[in-house]
């Protein structure tokens, strides 16, 4: 629960900065990649978990990791303060909340479909097309309703 609460302001700030620079999708991908990196590399996880390591050292290491991962300057600059405040273990939650904001901003809806048998590529494409058509027409109706209400 603490991670969720602590992650929300970071996701909001990252999104606002990315939106200003028109790089919301790029930053979303990079945040997700950074979360995987910081979570999956045991040495990084251990380093950032040690409370006696100074914040400046954590910021420097986070910056170096982001630069070596070829992340944009915005992502690199955003990760450093989070690392300095001991939030690298929150990156997965931050990235998830960021993605949710991005989806809302783009009017995108995510769906998770479970089937009893694996779908073939053709079946996946057909399902995707049908969902896209159904949700697209629903989206159009919602837009028309919003315009009517705005009058």
Question: What would you say this structure looks like, in words?
Answer:
It is a single chain. With 151 residues, this protein is mainly alpha-helical. It folds into two domains: 2-106, Peroxidase, domain 1; 114-151. The chain is 77% helix and 0% strand. It contains seven helices and no strands. The chain has helices at residues 2-20, 24-40, 42-49, 55-68, 73-84, 91-106, 121-150. The protein is globular, with a radius of gyration of 19 Å. It starts with a helix and ends with a helix. The relative contact order is 0.13.
Summarize the main sheet. none
User: What name does the CATH topology of the largest domain carry?
Assistant: Peroxidase, domain 1
- The ordered string of helix (H) and strand (E) elements is HHHHHHH
The overall number of domains is: 2
Approximate strand percentage: under 5%
Mass-distribution shape:
globular
Number of strands: 0
């Amino acid at each position: 629960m603490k991670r969720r609460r602590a992650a929300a302001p970071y996701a909001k700030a990252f999104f606002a900065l990315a939106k200003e620079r028109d790089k919301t999708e790029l930053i979303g991908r990079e945040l997700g990649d950074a979360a995987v990196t910081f979570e999956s590399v045991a040495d990084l996880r251990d380093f950032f978990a040690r409370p006696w390591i100074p914040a400046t050292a954590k910021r420097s290491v986070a910056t170096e990791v982001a630069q070596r991962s070829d992340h944009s300057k915005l992502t690199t600059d955003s990760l450093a303060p989070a690392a300095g405040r001991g939030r690298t273990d929150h990156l997965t939650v931050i990235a998830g909340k960021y993605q949710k904001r991005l989806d809302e901003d783009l009017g995108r809806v995510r769906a998770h479909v479970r089937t009893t048998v694996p779908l073939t590529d053709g079946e996946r494409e057909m399902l995707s097309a049908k969902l896209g058509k159904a949700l697209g027409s629903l989206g159009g109706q919602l837009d028309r309703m919003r315009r009517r209400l705005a009058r």
